[in-house]
Each structure stands twice: as C-alpha cells, then as structure tokens.
Amino acid sequence: MPIDEVLLPPLEQVVRNIERVIVGKRNVIVLSLTALLAKGHVLLEDVPGVGKTMLVRALAKSFSAELKRIQFTPDLLPSDVIGVSVYNPKERQFEYKPGPIVAHIVLADEINRTSPKTQSALLEAMEEGNVTVDGVTRALPQPFFVMATQNPIEYEGTYPLPEAQLDRFLLKLRMGYPSAEEEVDMLSRLEHSSPLEDIAPVMTVEELRSLQRKAADVHVSDTVKRYIVELVQQSRQHEAVYLGVSPRGSVALMKAAQAYAFIHGRDFVIPDDVQQLAPYVLAHRLLIRPEAKWDKLDAETVIGQLIARTPVPVQGRR
Amino acid sequence: MRPLGANLLSTVLPNVLAAWLLTEWLWPLEDVTDTAHIGVFVSFVALCFVLYLFRLPVWLSALGKIVYICWALFRLFPFDSIIALPQDLWRDSLVWLLGDRSSMPSDALRTFVFFLLLWAVSFVLRWLIVLRNRWLIPYALTVCYVAVLDTFMPYSGKRAIIRLVALGFFAFVWLHGERLRSNVPSFRIGKWRAAALFIPAVALAAGYAGPKLPPQWPDPVAFLHSYAAGPEETSDDQPAPGVKKIGYGQNDSRLGGPFIADDTVVFIAKDKGRHYWRVETKDIYTGKGWEEFPSEQVRSFENGETIGHEWWSDKVKTVEQTAEINRQDQAFHLIYPLGLRQVQTSEPIVYRMHMATEKIYTTDEEANALPIRRYTLTYLEPDFPIAALRAAPPVQDPPFLKRYTQLPETLPQRVRDLAKQITDGEKTIYDKVKAIEQYFHLNGYTYETTDVAVPGVNQDYVDQFLFETKRGYCDNFSTSMVVLVRSLGIPARWVKGYTPGRLVGEQDGQELYEVRNNDAHSWVEVYFEGIGWVPFEPTRGFVNPYAFSLPASNEEKQAPQPEEQEAPRVPLEQLIERSSPEQDSHWWEKFGDVWSWNILLVASAVLAAFGGAAYATRRKWWPRLTLLRFRRRKLDEAAWLVLAYGALLRHLQDYGLKRQPHETLRQYAAEVDRLFETDEMKRLTKLYECAVYGTGVKEGNVREAVQLWENLIKRTIS
C-alpha cells in the first residue's frame, strides 16, 4: 500500500506527464523518480513490450534531458559504450568520440545480453560518474541516470549480472502487465497518434539538479537509521538467506528513503518510506539459498518476512 | 533495545534455577544417608554457578572451586596443614586403590570425590538449563528423586515438593518466555514475566491455604510388601523351616528364617524427632539366638517419678524431650526411647523395670500386669561426643566384662579371626567398633527378609550369616556385630524395639509417627567406660538416628588429646551435627505464627477482589486519569507529544486496537480511523512523526495536537 500523501507539485506534474503514456504504473514512475533524485540508477527486469522504453523516453522529455539508448548485443564492445579516440589527420592528434553513454539519461536495453566486459564498462561509468578512454578521464554530464533493462534471467542467451554489479543499481523494478481495463485505455490513447509527442517539459536539467541537492538534505533521525540497520541485519540472519545485504545496501536504502520522503513533500524520513522501498532496494542485494527456492521463497518474500520481523520504532531515542 | 535490568535477570535466573535444582538433591542426604554439613556442599554448588555467571576464564573459575574445596576439607577434617592436604588425599586414594578395597576410602577422600561429582553435575546442569534451555529432564528427575525418597526412605519431602512445584511452574513460564523471545523478536516479555510470577504465586498460596484431603491411596510401600509376600505364603509346598518371625517377638532363642510382613499398627508416637524405640535388651548369645540374663532384680517407679536409671555419664550432652505414645495393641510393657526419665499416664500404674533386660512392665500395686494404652514420656536426647568415645579406656570391672563379653564355646574361630582382621590397624575401641559397624556395608551383605536361612544343628547363627549366606535382616546384622565386638573383649549387648516408623503428619508443632509391626528392629549397644551404653546400627539400609558430634576445632585443641587421635580416619557419619529443635524454627514459621494464614488469606482475597474490580472497570477511569495527568504536565511541546502519544497507544491497545510491532504508525492510524470513522489519528500521527522522526513540531501545531489527542483519548472511554 503506497503512502497516502500528495507529491511535491512539480514532481506530480512529471508523474502526470509520464502517466499519459504509461497507464496504471504510478508506483513504478514514482520509484523511478526516487532513483533519479537519489542520483541512483534503475534496473528494470521484465519481458519486452511492457513499456520500459516509453517510461524512459517520457521521463527524459519531462526534464528536457538528452536521452541515449544503447541496445546491448553479444558482440557489443566497451568502446561502443564509452566512446573511442580517433586520429584526426588534420589536427594530427587523437580526438575523443563520445560513446552513447555520454548523456543525461541512458537507456541500456537488455543489459544481460552482452558480454561481462561490456557490462562492466557500463557499470563502472555508472558508479564513478566518469569514463576513461586512453588514460584520459572525462566526467559524464550531471545528472546522469541509467535505466537498464534486462530480460528475466531464465531466458536463453543471457549473461547474468554478478551480485557485485547488481549492487550498483539503487532500485530494481518490475513493470508487470497492465490490467485489462488499463490495456483498453492504452489502446484508445494510441488509436490515432502517439501521446509522447504531446508531453511538454516540466523543468530544466538545472532545476532537476537542484532538486537532487534538496533531496540529499532530507533529515534521517537516529531512530529511523537504527530501523534501517536492524532491517538489514535481520537479512543477514534470515535462515533462507545465503548472503545478506551489505552496508552499501543500508546506505542505498537510506538515500532512496530520503528521495522518497522528498518526493512526498517531507523533510524527514519515516519508517513507512523504508518499508515501501525495502523490496526494491534490497531484493537484488540478497542471495537466497538454493534449497529455499524449493519452498517458493524468493527475495521479495524474504524481504516481506524481514519487515514483518523487525519492530517499527515508534518512540524517539532518549 | 532491552534494558540492562532485564538482561541481567535473564542471565541470572536460569543459573539460580539450575543451582536450586541441584541443591534439592543435596538436602535429603542429611536424612537418608549419614552425610553431614550439607551446607558446605550447597555453598559449593552456589559457588559453581556464581562463577559460571561471571564467565570467568576456565582456569580462574577452576582455581576458585579448588580453593573452596581445599578450604572445606581443611575445615572439616583434621589435616595438619593445608599444604599436606593433597598429599594426604593422594596417600588415602593409593591406600584404597592398592590396598584393601573392602573398606571404605577415607572420609576426606570421599568428601573430595563428592565435591568433584558436584562440580561435574553443576557443569552438565548449566549446559542443559542455562545454555540449552532444557530443564524438563533434570526437573523431572529431581521430582522422582524426592518422591522416591519420601516414599521409601525416612525422609519427609513435603517442603521439597512444595518448593519444586513452585520452582517448576516458575521455571516453565520463565524459560518458555525466554525461548519465545529469542524466536519472536516482538514478543512482550514484560507481561509474560509478570504472569510468570503472579499466577504460580496465587496457585501456590491457594493450595497452601486451602483444605487438604487425607491421602487417597494406601501406603504403596506396605502394598508392595504385602504383594510381594502374598504368593509366597500361598505356595507353601515346602514347610517353612520351623522358625519364622512376624514383627516383634518375645522369644529370640532361635533366630533365622523369613521375616513375615505384618502391617498392623503397633503405636502412634507424637515426638520431636527420630530415634529408636526400645523394648528390651538381651545379653546371652547361645549360638542360635538370644537368652535373657538370669536376674530378678527389679526397679519400680510410679507416674511422674524420675526412674533413677543413669543412662550415661555427664560427658554426653543431652536435651530433654517429651513424647506421647498411643498404643494400638494391648501390651503390658512400655515402648520407650533411650534416655527415659519419666512416664506419665492417667491410670495409677506402677512401672517395674527388669534390670537384666531393661524391659519395663506395667503393673498395679500388687504386681498384677495392667495394660497401658496412652502415656507421655520425658526423655533425654543424647549427643555422643566422639572425642570422649575415642578417649574411653578399656572396661576393667571383671563381672561386668564377663557378662557382656559372653560367647558360646561353640563359636567358630573364624568369627574371632574376622573381628581381628576388620579392626586391624584401628587404635581406639571406638574406631574398632565403628569399623565392625561399617564392615557390613561393603562386603557383599544384603538386606533380605524372606530368603533367610536357619542355622543347622551344628551351625552357628552368626557364623552362617557372616561367611555363608550373607543375607538377612536386622537380627542377623545386629547379632553378628555384638558377637564380633564381644570377641575383641569389648562389652556389647543386643537391643530390641522399633524403628522411628513413618512420618504421617504434624500436630502441635510435633511430628506424628506411625509404627507398625513391620518396624520391629534390633540393634547394638556398646559400653564405653566413663560414658555408658552407646547405640550402633550395623544393618544395611538403616541409619543410626542418634547424634554423634565432633567438638568444634578450638575445643578439640583444649581437650586432652589421646595419642590415638593421630589417625586421620574420621568416618563421615561421626560428623553428623543435629541442630536442636529450637534452632529448627525458622523466621517464616514465626511469621506464620503471628500472621495466621487465615488472616493472610482474607486479606489477599480482598485485595484480589479490589484489583479485579479495578481491572474490569479500567476503561471508565484509566483514560480520565491519563487526561488529567497530561493536562497538568508542563513540558516542552515535543516531549509532551511523545509521552502523550505513547499513553494514547497504550489506551488504544487496551481498547482492543493492537498495533502489530511491524506496523508503522501510519498503517496503524489508518486502522484506528477506520474504526472510529474519523481522520484524527492520521492527523495526530503526522504531527507525532514530526516530533519523533523529524526535526520537531511547529509551535502552532501543538495546540492542534492537544485537541486531537484529547478527542482520541475520550474515544477510548467506554
């Protein structure tokens, strides 16, 4: 059950914008915005055709940000992602040709179809915010937001991302199919033209950057910090978990909660934010024991159990 | 986070429970074995658990225990110095291992080994109860132990059972709570603990104060005996070998044969403590049984008159006691305790004590026998000083010696040889007698009442028992001991009477004992020059009920020490120190006298009724009380809101709206608002969130919060 609160007006505008092209996925939109404001990246795991690309394009358009798309294929090379130095005979020197990663918003499609070498090139750029070509480090534009999609791992011809790299994504989301009514609604919207054309920009990249700064200023009380830590520590003790959430996971959960609180117009984090975000922040940072899968236990179920086991602090620390 | 106090409690309590269980095993030892100074062992158990509690390094806690053991051994036994202690123990164990294993190891060594055993057991108990939370098996074993001892041994487990039931309830609730808490993080241990204390306390108080039915089952021991004896009596193909014995008999000239169980109650005694009941002594051993000494000397005395029989010299410390006897059969003689001074009965009876046998007949003034049923006895309870017994010189009086060392010509030489062999190395008379008394405990002698042989025509009764059958009942053991002692030239005689019987209840601060024909018994008295006749108990499975005391160490040093003192062999049973009955009354008994249980019961019932009524109507007054409390409180806004919101949560929970621990306040507020059909809780919660998770409440919002809070509290009034 999402938090019953109105969003900050400009962000509400963004959500409305995107809702024009994506029907009935308000939660995914809000969460994507959360990742964007927390300077994190999103991994979307879903089957093709549920609107992943639409979501990113609408997002980029709302912020009038530059969007680039990289389609990952098995033969893609790291230089195809980060760019390459080319010799310019006129100037008699090497010149950097930026790759598709040099943009505000990058859609990395089917990231698990490419080789680990190329994957890690992308993930390093995401983590560090810059790319290094021929020994020269170049900063990526700010804000820099990657929305990667991957097919469910059971599919053939995939290179699953190792846990250390999954850790680089702040949130892992799933779109899911729309309901029948929503799908009908979607059809009627697309009957004559693409609604994407009608999306008007809500704010500039500059304004987005200032929102990011404000989100980082949101207050997290010691009580809530302790709650986050207890939740994460529970994950390390859970009987079905092989490898629990790392301290980097606690940081991610706090950062995401700050952004989430900010989106909802609050200047402090409440445990509800943490509970809302925990499944998306923590699930891909857990390794479930293989035998637990016999009991149909997946990471999301385990997170649900962790939340049910951790008492919510309702009084301040004295 | 749990408060420190709760943490401390939950570590200390399992340790206390475990230590308590172990001490329940120790207390009965004083009554059923001849172990003394139980307090020393109990303290050791306590020490073990205290050391575990502090989680000292292994070497340090082991050192602590060893120091305690050494100190205790040094205090209990006459070691020359604490340095000589390990050496002496080593020597004793070598003597026992390499030498004659038919004797007991020295008492110091036995005590030392017992300490080690306690050490090991406390370790196991700690592992089970404290570390594994498994207390049911040790607890069940303890209950069985107390029950068996209570049933089959002269030990009253009444108090122990009450303690155990209390402990059991308490431990069950507490430890189960601990287990729940470790599995369910949100478990509310505080309430659980309150219940853990309250419910068993109420149950126990009710059980203690309430009326009780008499025992609903017949005595299982008598039943088992009669069941076991039953088939033998019916399958009487072989005629029993002439002799058999049923309960107390007059004629002892031919001993042997089975002892037939007979459950008839002979008398009921109201008394302070346990001691044997005498009837008569016999002193001529014929090789087949006992005859009376041919003497007609009689001493007469009347009701309330001091009998003028000197039992012991003044070296024996005595305490005057009274007992009341109610005979269930018709008899013309007294059953009396050792140390008798006066007899009192309602009828004008003249008591005639037959000096040869010390049997006291009840007659009228013309010496016609009169039956006696109910009488009161005044007697001296003796406490024999071991030092004086050790110092006693051999008896010199020739006629006395002749009479009490009489043995038949036909007594086989091997009996005399055995006596010498047993007492070899013992220096004092007392130690020799003690060695003979203890001899039966080790060398394959068993207590047996049915399959007991009758000596053949050319056989000696004692010789047959000592060397051939080795099974028998009290007559076999006591007669053998008298003969063995006599063969060493020490005067001894054979005493007949009854054991203390079975404790059946209490009356007027005294204990009621029921003595049946089955309790007929025989034992030994040995004469010590300058002291008098001292009772001994050789029969296996019986414990000498009389007190023998070592003097306190400083007195011992002043007392003239005979050379024999050097031998460090002090049998443990000599250490028995009986506390006098005055010391037995504890403070809680005195408290019980002042505050009769009825008053306490009424008071607690009234309190409980008030408490119950207050609890039932709490929703009417408790929220109002809270309103009043928080209106008067002057605090800064944020602190007020935090406290007031906490109180509101408690009231809502009492109202039936329980917040699950994993529920956030908003989720809970939504539920509350749905029930009350309002949005006040949501609004208040948002303000509270600012106070507790945020940076503070804005001033203008506090007034709104107070209003919302009051409205919500009022909603919980029903």
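The two ends of chain A are 31 Å apart (CA to CA).
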